[in-house]
Amino acid sequence: MKIVIIGAVAGGTSAAAKARRNDEDAEIKIYDMDYDISYSGCGLPYYIGEEIQDRDELTPRNAAFFKKKYNVDVFRRHEVLKINTENKVLTIKNLDTDDVFDESYDKLVIATGAKPIVPNIEGAEKSNVFYLRNVRQADKIKEYILSHKPKSAVIVGTGFIGLEMTENLKKLGIEVTLVERLNQVTPGLDSDMAAYVEKYLKSKDINLILGDSVAALKGETLVNEVALESGKVLNTDFVIMSIGVKTNTELARNAGIDLGAKGSIRVNTKMMTNIEDIYACGDCTESFSVINKKPLYRPLGSTANKMGRIAGDQLTGGNLEFRGILGTGIFKVFDMAVAQTGLTEKEAQSEGFDTVVCHNIKPDKPAYYHGKEMVIKAVADKNTGKLLGVQIVGYTGVDKRIDVFVTAITFGAKAEDLFHLDLAYAPPFSTTKDPVMYTGMILDNAINRGRELITPKELNGLRKAGNDVTVIDTRVSRQYEEAHVENAINIPHAQVRNKIDELDKEKVVVTYCNKGVTGNAVQNILINNGFKKVYNISGGHKNYKAQTK
């Protein structure tokens, strides 16, 4: 059997390796357009920022490695021009010699990946406008910084790459301005969680321009001005465009292969396309959601590796099948970690779920053992109690918690199940009730025990709609006097029972404290004394303050 793979990064090389493990006799060839293969794209910002000193650490496996270890022939700088599906023949061009030749196959894997979006604006192709997708592009950025000694940079886009580059350029002493067309940073997060990232970036002296987009990149030979749609003009020494990627699927489309979400290649759970003996994997390929089974496109290296392994197994007679993804992602910007999995609140509501949301602000371990607060936003379905998605911002222990939530959602856990997890505890690692367990307790109280939560946005919405709401600040007077929710009255927790008769049990009451615990305690007292409708502010005053600009 002759297996040909188009693309030699995560998906393609994983497919080749698994196919070889299953079949020692197959002839396996990989063709790729690039100079580098099997590289770590996620490490590129840290190579530019000199966190990673040795370029070879990003490209540890070359063509010789694959030939020696897997007996796989890898051909770099070769572009597949056409797929003849009827005769099972590829037309291939050697980009170094311009020679064109044909290659037959028995089984074909398309792993052509994705490419950066290049906006159709003036100056987008100038030599100091960079797009970071592969090692050669990282080399160009690094060379430019070394030769031109730039003082300032504009980064367009605040996704993973944009914020990772922000950190690494800042560490090199370059002043960074971030431009984002949305009114928030980190487009993948709900706006209430993005607010924490925005505040942190400002504390690091990053210039933020939100709700604006680039109209033109101006300059004679090099870009030195970025003109925005608002009319604002930014001076800069270079630009990094980080506005996303699009699927590299023209070859597949021209061959008659079905495309799906955002132009990605549609496959079944065996990574098979609609054409017999042709498979696809990696960033060019459609995924589907574990939660609702709907198609989605989330290009991530972890998913590409998984898809490649499944494709390599299937085309050599194996039985591995793709089970979907949650779109889990995590990145670091300076000392802050940002993670998410599953559906955001906005996505869950658009899918028709009756959502319950909580904001849990807890340290990753006890304060006496250097614990640092993280903010966990969890979204659950009120009707079934199932956990739908989680977003976390924090400094330590974020990766551990998000992975626990990923596991729980993958296996269909309800919010109430989180409390019963037997998680590891010792002061250097966690609190006695881990933040994951506490999140489950908060959601369980809201879904099953009548202790409803209200977000700052929902509270402001109630008030704007003219509802008569009593808001009670349950903190001590000193905290109330420093800052409080507008028109809130101060009744500290210790005094609530003595003042119950002064309150109207028929009115809607909203309680809050600093982070939520004492607010919930007062909520319990009021409900147990016959108050009809009592909410507790999700995440307390800390979360309310974060949402109020």
From TrEMBL:
It comes from the Bacteria. It holds the Pfam family Pyr_redox_dim. Its cofactor is FAD. Keywords: FAD, Flavoprotein, Oxidoreductase, Redox-active center. SMART domains: RHOD. Residues 465-549 form the Rhodanese domain. GO terms for molecular function: oxidoreductase activity. InterPro entries: FAD-bd_OxRdtase, FAD/NAD-bd_sf, FAD/NAD-binding_dom, FAD/NAD-linked_Rdtase_dimer_sf, Pyr_nucl-diS_OxRdtase_dimer, Rhodanese-like_dom, Rhodanese-like_dom_sf. Belongs to the class-III pyridine nucleotide-disulfide oxidoreductase family. This is NAD(FAD)-dependent dehydrogenase. It comes from Clostridium pasteurianum BC1.
